[in-house]
Structure formats: C-alpha cells, structure tokens
Amino acid sequence: MLQSYAVKYANLIKTKARELGFDYCGISKAEFLEEEAPRLEAWLSKNYHGKMAYMANYFDKRLDPRLLVEGAKSVITLILNYYPEKTLPQAPENLKLSKYAYGKDYHFVMKDKLKDLMEAISEEIGEVNGRVFVDSAPVMDKAWAKKSGAGWLGKHTNLINREIGSFFFIGEIICDLEIQPDGAIKDYCGTCTRCIDACPTDAIVEPYVVDGSKCISYYTIELKEAIPDEVKGKMENWIFGCDICQDVCPWNSFARPHSTPEFNLNPQLAEFTKKDWEEITEELFQEIFRRSAVKRTKLEGLKRNIDFVREE
C-alpha cells in the first residue's frame, strides 16, 4: 500500500512540475551521499574552492539532506531551461556575460516556482514538511540531479540532460514525503574532451574535476580581490561568468530556447557595445541589473572585470 502511494505521489508531483513549466522533475531518496563524501573532501583538500570559504562550511549538511529537513525522506529535483533565443551582440571585440545572467536573477524565479510546486503538493496530498533550495544553501544540487536521472555529470562537471543540453538551473524540494525514487542514467560523454580542450585557463584539471579557483566564472564573480596577472590574455572578453565549456559541448546542439519570459535578454543589453560597457554608470548599472545575478559583483566588481579584459 505504501509503495502504491509513493508511485502515485511521484506521478502527481511530476505532472504539477510540468504544469509549472519545469523541464524535468526527478526524485531521489533522502540519504547520505556516500559517493560524494570522499570526492568533496579531496576537492576541498586541494583548495580547488579558492577563496570560496563557504564551500568548506556545513560539510555534513552538504552530504545529508536529513540534517537540513527533519524527517526528510525524499529529494525532488527540478530543472528549468535558460538557453536564450537572443544572445548579446557577437562582434569579436564585444564583452560577454554568461547566458544565465541575461534576465532576472534565477534565484527569485526558481524559488517562486518551487514554492508554487510545494503549495500544489500540500493542496493535493495534505500537509508536507519541506524546504525549497536554489543554490543558496549547503545542498549538492548536481549530485541530487544526477541521482534523480536528470542527466549525468559531464567532464566539465556541469549536469548534461540528453534532451536539452546543460543550460538549465537546478532546484530542490527536500521533504518528509515518501515518493517513488528515479534512478541515475549512464554517462554519455564518451571519449569527447572538447570542454577540457577549450578551457583557456586549464580549469578542468582532469575529466570530471574542476579547479574552481582557475575558472573564469570564479575570477569574474567569486573573487573579490584583483584578478591574477597570470590569466591576462586568457579571459576571452568574459566579464561575468563564462560559458565556454558549455558552448563547445556537442550535447548543447540540442539546446532549445527557454519559455520563461523572466530569463529573456534585457532589451537595454541587446545592443550594448564594448564602449557602452566601459562607460557604464552607477545609475545605469542599478537600472539594468536591479534584479539580475550581475548585481552580485556590484559596479565596482564589474568595472574591475571590464578593465582587466580591456588590458589584455
């Protein structure tokens, strides 16, 4: 009887997730991430997190969702496509933003959708104890997404989905509801090394291992001090984030434009030239990036990035 309810709940939740616009919904049993524990420990011991001190915090909670939600039995993973229909101007001299930062900050959009799903679950099933997570708590989202069958971890360590590639956000609901879990799928990277070969800063130190402290996204977003001189000439005009390893991935030939209006390219950015970036004022920065992930760098950080690539 319990098993049949678990299957029923899984079907109901997946139907609701589709209605809310999610591109995939998968379920995992809430348990200790046994395979991830030694990998995370090794990654931290090599200082691959650089100045991201928060990555070393809450080690136990990162590996066990039951420490985040009392009585947790299931982790519901949701993915939401953000691949844009329209990109920034592509002239060689133009400066680049990661596609995930084109529109409204995904934290707001995903969290709202996850809360709507949580509400729908409670309406259909009854009171459920759970929490929603979007990249802002010690949750190993890619590990849970992999366990739920959303995709596999590519050699660049991004999750790849066979139908839509890797340009998507991941969020979770950790709850005390027993739901029929899905299983992981196989790795389809094969012998391909395009992401490794394309990375200008050699951040992918070996297949499936990224030295985060060498990543262009780290330099342009996470690092608060000066960007090291040794990466001069390697930034390829990226001023916020980097999409190189995803852009070259053959699986992203399947990427299709998203259907979430909030992720659309800000019209003010659509015609931005290098000169516009170099002359951006505090007023314009606040106007364009008021609800954007780019706001995280503040104007001072964005100008540091612009000045750094201008000197290359």
From TrEMBL:
[4Fe-4S] cluster 2 binds at C199, C215, C242, C245. Its cofactor is [4Fe-4S] cluster; cob(II)alamin. Residues 179-209 form the 4Fe-4S ferredoxin-type domain. It is found in: Cytoplasm. Keywords: 4Fe-4S, Cobalamin, Cobalt, Cytoplasm, Iron, Iron-sulfur, Metal-binding, Oxidoreductase, Queuosine biosynthesis, tRNA processing. Binds 2 [4Fe-4S] clusters per monomer. InterPro entries: 4Fe4S_Fe-S-bd, 4Fe4S_Fe_S_CS, QueG, QueG_DUF1730. Pathway: tRNA modification; tRNA-queuosine biosynthesis. [4Fe-4S] cluster 1 binds at C189, C192, C195, C249. Cob(II)alamin binds at R62, D135, L159, I170, S217, C242, D243. It is an enzyme of class 1 (oxidoreductase). One of its GO terms (biological process) is tRNA queuosine(34) biosynthetic process. Its EC number is 1.17.99.6. Belongs to the QueG family. Monomer. HAMAP family: QueG. Catalyzes the conversion of epoxyqueuosine (oQ) to queuosine (Q), which is a hypermodified base found in the wobble positions of tRNA(Asp), tRNA(Asn), tRNA(His) and tRNA(Tyr). This is Epoxyqueuosine reductase. It comes from Emticicia agri. The lineage of its organism: Bacteria, Pseudomonadati, Bacteroidota, Cytophagia, Cytophagales.
